[in-house]
Write a structure and sequence with these properties.
Elements lengths: L3 H13 L3 H14 L4 H13 L3 H17 L5 H17 L3 H14 L6 H14 L40 E6 L3 E7 L8 E5 L4 E6 L5 E6 L12 E4 L4 E6 L5 E2 L11 E2 H4 L17 H31 L2 H13 L9 H4 L26
Antiparallel strand pairs: 1-2, 2-7, 3-4, 4-5, 6-7, 8-9
Length: 371
């Protein structure tokens, strides 16, 4: 029989593999067996956030906090994490006042909670943009009047914040001995709309999308430590590229986030210094081989260019008969022969002479420029 622990572990593995839909399924099955497990609700809340389901993430955070109230023995760090999850979900729902209360509660419980400082800063920035509410001017005292039957009081229900449309954004990553490179594929983003915070064990990315919605990528904790001062990012026309400097040189990351059971050494698992394939891809790519192949293509192109320049120089310095021989032999032989001897070429049609082991076929001629 599958236990809650088994389902939780399977959900965590799916989360690490960025299969968030599958992770939600495992966590939900675990909750169906045991609905009093705080950590499962927190993990599912984080997974919902990855899927852009902020309302569900908020509700799971509330359920976790309700369970904590029933269990006074729960560790303070767990409660702090629940308040953080609530605050982050409220932020994405544009309920910045609720987010402020939750984040401050988290800070009171555990001020060193990863990514807390970043979320508090972002939330304060959004609160600063909100219109200030001025105190209403006191109304003059009403004039006494005959009593009338009062109407039944009408309950005013505050409008719930609108959930922004979810825009799925793809991200991929790869690595070499020194850096882990993460590419977030969003086009036409302004640099001032990007907020990236890198700590030793966490990465927080917030982007104001061209559509007006918000995108967030929160990796916490990173599977391995990084050096924030030597990490960097660049906003390009088609993507945001983030380079995280590895604290441990040549360690191969098996995952971006959480426990990394597949960690190894770049020296034993890959060509030294060669970037490992993007871990979000299903197929392995040998980036070193691709780089060498591209270099060979460049060398080949340079060789063709040099040969073309040699022919052009010969043609330029030649007399009229030599030029006629070169043009006639090259054209009639379909590019397989280039002769400077007009006495031989002028006698008849120059035949096509393909290299040994090859067969001549009619194709469009490439151009060789004789100046």
């Amino acid at each position: 029989m599958t236990t809650v622990q088994d389902l939780f572990a399977q959900g965590s593995h799916a989360f690490a593999d960025e299969d968030y839909e599958e992770a939600v399924n495992f966590y939900t099955k675990a909750i169906e067996i045991n609905a009093s497990h705080v950590e499962i609700f927190l993990k599912r809340s984080a997974t919902y956030q990855k899927l852009g389901k902020d309302k569900e993430a908020y509700e799971d955070a509330l359920k976790a906090l309700a369970l904590i109230k029933e269990k006074p023995s729960v560790d303070v760090s767990v409660e702090a994490k629940a308040q953080l999850r609530k605050g982050v979900a409220a932020f994405h729902l544009h309920d910045y006042q609720t987010a402020k209360v939750a984040l401050e509660a988290c800070h009171a419980l555990s001020p060193d909670q990863r990514t807390l400082a970043s979320w508090m800063r972002k939330n304060e920035q959004e609160l600063a943009k909100q219109p200030k509410v001025t105190a209403p001017t006191p109304a003059p005292a009403p004039i006494a009047a005959a009593p009338v039957a009062s109407a039944a009081p009408v309950a005013v229900v505050p409008a719930s914040p609108a959930t922004p449309a979810v825009h799925r954004v793809r991200h991929e990553w790869y690595q070499n001995d020194s850096y882990v490179t993460i590419s977030v594929f969003i086009k036409s983003v302004k640099k001032e709309s990007v907020d990236i915070n890198i700590t030793e064990n966490a990465l927080s990315v917030s982007v104001k999308m061209p559509t007006g919605s918000d995108y967030s990528l929160e990796l916490e904790p990173l599977s391995h430590a990084v050096v924030p001062s030597e990490s960097k990012f660049e906003v390009l026309s088609t993507k945001i590229e983030i380079q995280l400097k590895k604290e441990r040189f040549a360690i191969k990351w098996g995952a971006l986030e959480g426990d990394d059971v597949n960690a190894g050494s770049m020296a034993t698992t890959n060509v030294a210094g060669a970037p490992a394939y993007p871990s979000s891809s299903r197929k392995t790519k040998n980036w070193d081989a691709l780089e060498k192949e591209a270099a060979k293509d460049e060398e080949k192109a340079d060789g063709d260019k040099a040969l073309n320049q040699l022919f052009a120089q010969i043609y330029k310095d030649a007399d009229d008969n030599t030029k006629r021989a070169m043009m006639k032999s090259f054209t009639e032989s379909n590019g397989t022969c280039l002769s400077t001897n007009w006495d031989e070429v002028g006698k008849g049609t120059v035949e096509t002479r393909p290299p040994e082991g090859m067969v001549a076929k009619k194709v469009r001629l490439f151009s060789v420029t004789f100046v």
